[in-house]
């Protein structure tokens, strides 16, 4: 017989067996002893008194395989209120196809061999809190209509939850299994320890699936799983490969603070995906559709990728992201913050959508009072700094010098040449606007005005045309060139020729 502690735990609230001080089995009247310490005749009488749907109370009892089988056969595999808290199942525990018509509790129970609930039906709630499974655990094809609690369980072998269904019924009011609750019940695996393979393929969670702080020592799979509310893995540890999908999640997939030592595969859509402060030391492969992604403060090592499968993929934050080589494909980055991004050169941006300045004319009180914003791609941090976007009450204003460096280091990772040119322009613009007033800012302003930092060929061509026109006008003015006048008309005066009478010289006439 397995040795037990001589002192009952403080949370044992039932009357324990009188046969041995170390036995925690609940007494059966009128014997004053637990089922394990009944004589064969007394045990036979107990078994004959069992009826289908009867409540079972075997708390703290040592249960060999044969005894479990005889008890289940006695109730024809249909149990009412079932209490197996702190029970020890010394052999294989086979609860396959058993119907639990009321609440069932296995808190602190120990299963030394196989624990099989294949096809079992829990019509109310079930609890396995802090249960220990030394070998395999199977709830394949099981149905739980109420709340399922597996908090702090330890499974040494494989855990099989394939095709299981959790929380398909609505309950109400306070209490465990009480009527009147208008919320879907959830399945809780908080701080559970899975030392073998964990399989949740094709499992259906009608409420929340909570795996906060759970630890998966080997591979875990959620292929074709369905979650009607949120799947919560905050603080979980994945020491083996984790395949979270393809799966459907209605509200949110939270991987905040997780630690994945191997491959982390995420394939879902139609929900919010949170990887805030996550540490993925292996490869991250995320295929998302119609989703919202938060990578604030995440650490991603190795060659990783986040791909838009279909619909829209909106990335809300890359603040504090530390990625060795992360490729974002098809992401909407119009509202995504890049502030605090570590190693921006490790980011590859493929077919991404960026924000743009406000279109048309801009009026302001400063100089120049009228501004025409060109159509270029900008990051959300520049929009925030310029006041184009709403700023939260506790959100610090970006630094132009930081934005200039960010533009420079993001540029080489952009696949679109036009976007890369816009980022180069943004880097120079932030450097100019962030420089103190003086010679450097004047030179940068002239550089911007002349040719848009060498990136606006139209502006340079316009200046060339303007200078050429001014030069031609100046040359013409200096040369005195006028428009040709009308030709002058010369008038010819016509005179009358009169005959001249000859006469002698007066002197000659007088003399001769």
Summed up:
It is built from eight helices and 45 strands. The chain is of the alpha/beta class.
Structure description:
There is one protein chain. The longest helix has 23 residues, at 457-479. Helix 4 (400-410) packs antiparallel against helix 5 and helix 5 packs antiparallel against helix 6 (439-451). This protein has a 33-stranded parallel sheet that branches. An 8-stranded parallel sheet has the order 3-7-11-15-19-25-29-33, with no helix packed on it. Mean pLDDT is 84; it is low at 1-6, 169-182 and 500-512. It has 512 residues and is α/β, with parallel strands linked by helices. The protein is rod-shaped. Among the domains are: 1-132, no CATH class; 370-462, no CATH class. The protein has 8 helices and 45 strands. 19% of the residues lie in helices and 26% in strands. Keywords: Membrane, Transmembrane, Transmembrane helix. The chain crosses the membrane at residues 461-481. This is Pentapeptide repeat-containing protein.
